[in-house]
């Protein structure tokens, strides 16, 4: 066997080991689950808890921290931003105490993590928030046992899962308005952009439904998604136009205070907000 051929075999072996190890570790981390998906505190209830479950076959080191941030849109891209100016008046990251903050969870076990909020006195009415980051790291990452002159690989994959934590004062209220609905077309794909602004003193948390119907009123596209508006945000929806006949269509939708993963009691309620736009597809 030539040196070049031997090198190629080693490269292929390394690639295989990396892919295989990545698959093993990814499957292991996928078993770390968190419930609930958001935390809510107020002036009457300053305590909360998370349940972290390890459904995999490896022990996991868990580290929990808080940081300020919120979703918004910049240059058409959805992202999480940390506005240091807004953080000074809206962040609860320094108020939240976590017990325990670092621990190891064994396979097929679960751990309850408790949270206590200690807000300052004389808060202005409204909503305050932070992001809770749950970092998981395997205690004993998979190791390929190899003999001399053989190829092995080891990957240590750290996974971060993030949920929102909200604190609301007694007079917290939320609202949302649709500032624009835009439609663009490129080849056989249409792009719907719904831009929204938060109008209350607390973030809006709920759902957004978008529909496209033809002249007969038949729905040709529909999408319902979770929707959080902290300041302003643009949500994008792509629609396949290849099977649609040319003609007049209507984009419509509704924003509601409903989430499948969050109790109604934890959501600040609003009257449903509807929107509509007529478009032409040629």
Q: Which structural category do the helix and sheet elements fall into?
A: mainly beta
Nearest-integer average pLDDT: 87
Radius of gyration, CA atoms, in whole angstroms: 24 Å
CATH class of the largest domain: Mainly Beta
Question: What is the CATH-assigned architecture of the largest domain?
Answer: Sandwich
CATH topology call of the largest domain: Immunoglobulin-like
Helix proportion range: 10-25%
In total, how many beta strands?
18
- Alpha carbon gap, first and last residue: 62 Å
Largest sheet properties:
5 strands, mixed
Q: Indicate how many domains the architecture comprises.
A: 2
Strand order of the largest sheet: 2-11-10-4-8
Beta-strand percent range: over 45%
Low-confidence runs (pLDDT<50, min 5 residues)? 1-29
Give the helix tally: 2
Order of helices and strands: HEEEEEEHEEEEEEEEEEEE
* CATH level-four homologous superfamily name of the largest domain: Immunoglobulins
- C-alpha geometry: globular
Description:
This protein has helices at residues 3-29, 84-90; strands at 32-35, 38-42, 47-54, 60-67, 70-74, 77-81, 96-99, 102-105, 109-117, 127-138, 159-168, 176-186, 189-198, 204-213, 219-229, 232-240, 247-256, 273-281. By secondary structure, it is mainly beta. It has two domains: 32-140 and 156-168, Immunoglobulins (Immunoglobulin-like); 176-281, Immunoglobulin-like, CATH 2.60.40. It has a five-stranded mixed β-sheet. Strands 1-3-9-7 form a four-stranded antiparallel β-sheet, with no helix packed on it. β14 and β15 (219-229) form a beta hairpin. The longest helix has 27 residues, at 3-29. The chain is globular and about 60 Å long. The N and C termini lie far apart (62 Å). The relative contact order is 0.16. Residues 1-29 have low confidence and may be disordered.
């Amino acid at each position: 066997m030539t040196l070049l051929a031997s090198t190629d075999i080693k490269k292929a072996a390394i690639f295989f080991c990396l892919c295989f190890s990545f698959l093993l570790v990814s499957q292991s981390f996928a078993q770390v689950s968190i419930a609930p998906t958001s935390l809510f505190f107020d002036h009457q209830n300053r305590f909360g808890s998370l349940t972290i479950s390890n459904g995999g076959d490896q022990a996991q080191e868990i580290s929990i921290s808080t940081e300020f941030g919120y979703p918004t849109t910049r240059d058409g891209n959805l992202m999480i931003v940390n506005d240091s100016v807004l953080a000074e008046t809206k962040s609860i990251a320094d108020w939240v105490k976590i017990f325990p903050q670092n621990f190891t969870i064994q396979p097929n076990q679960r751990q309850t993590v408790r949270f206590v909020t200690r807000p300052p006195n004389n808060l202005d009415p409204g909503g305050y928030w932070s992001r809770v980051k749950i970092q998981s790291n395997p205690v004993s990452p998979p190791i390929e046992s190899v003999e001399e002159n053989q190829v092995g690989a080891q990957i240590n994959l750290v996974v971060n899962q993030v949920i929102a934590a909200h604190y609301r004062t007694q007079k917290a209220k939320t609202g949302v308005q649709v500032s624009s609905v835009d439609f663009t077309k490129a080849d056989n794909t249409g792009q719907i952009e719904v831009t929204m602004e938060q109008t209350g003193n607390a973030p809006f948390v709920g759902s957004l439904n978008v529909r496209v119907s033809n002249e007969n009123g038949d729905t040709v596209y529909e999408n319902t998604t979770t929707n959080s508006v902290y300041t302003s945000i643009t949500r994008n929806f792509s629609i396949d136009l290849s099977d649609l006949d040319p003609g007049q269509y209507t984009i419509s939708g509704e924003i509601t205070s409903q989430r499948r993963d969050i109790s109604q009691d934890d959501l600040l309620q609003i009257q449903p907000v509807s929107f509509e736009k007529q478009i032409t597809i040629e």
